[in-house]
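Supplementary Methods, section 5.1.

A reviewer requested that the exact input to the structure prediction be made available. We therefore reproduce it here, unchanged from the version used in the analyses.
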Amino acid sequence: MDKEVVIIPPDYDLFEDNVTKIIYANKVAIIDYHTFESFVIESEAFAGFEKKLFALLFRFLRKK
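The structure derived from this sequence is encoded token-by-token as follows.
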């Protein structure tokens, strides 16, 4: 299986919130590890939008 990894450079790393977003099929889950609160959105539209944002960020970081 081929795999590619990109790293967010330290000068772009604004993510100190300890929150994770997981996109899977037609679901988007957001988890806050400070409070252990989470929620799942089950929506083709939301999941598709999040996948596009991920692809855009991945392409941008790949060029760095």
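The first strand starts at residue 19 and ends at 24. These observations are discussed further in the main text.
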